[in-house]
Amino acid sequence: MDSDLRRLRDTLHGILRANPVLDRALHRVNRTNMIKCALIARSENHADISVSGILEGELDPDVALGDYTFIEKAQNLVGALYSSLSMGNSVDRNLLLNCSRTLTGNPDAYFRKGNPVVYTFNHVPPHCSDVDRELGGLIRRVYAGDMDNDPVYRAMILHNGIIGIWPFDEFSAEIGLFAMNYFLMEQGFIPVTFAMPRKEYLDVTGDNLKGRRQKEFYYTLREAIEEKLEEAIQACERYTGGAYEDKT
Length: 248
Description:
It contains ten helices and no strands. By secondary structure, it is mainly alpha-helical.
């Protein structure tokens, strides 16, 4: 694992262990960031949408009704994901199906039955009969013991793999982003958001599906992880009035 990311991760964990109030406050921020990250897959104005404000009941005439509905359902999904994480569950087909069922509001939602062309990413996903098998292979690859022990790389593979397979008729990209952040939290990190225009995200992800620009996506994700860790540490230090020093 990247030594700088490990250091930042361990520093933040040390702060939070010593101060449960900060831990609870960051928990709320993390929930919001998971939803905000998923919005890049659906809204040009994702960076300007106040997820926390909407969750508190604010009305913004510039936010589409569909995004309001998505945020409301995503709030329920994030609660379920945190419960799953607390039980030590990893990403698997059942977790992904639960994502789909929560976001669609359909308790019987399942993998897609058709064979779409995903114009958003200029991509043709595998045949619908292969979705379950392809997902199983992806998840085994991400969690394989012989895979490079780099959580950033694994998270990237998971994100790109879910979008490449396009397992659901709706919300496949959003679910890929939720799964990516879930995996990062499994590894002790905190949820990220992407500070880029939606078109740039769609373009680089679409190219990743064709085996191009993967190094670019990797470093974009790594930078996002580092930025969120540094932001969290700085916010905690402002609250406590000084830099944290690990005495262990």
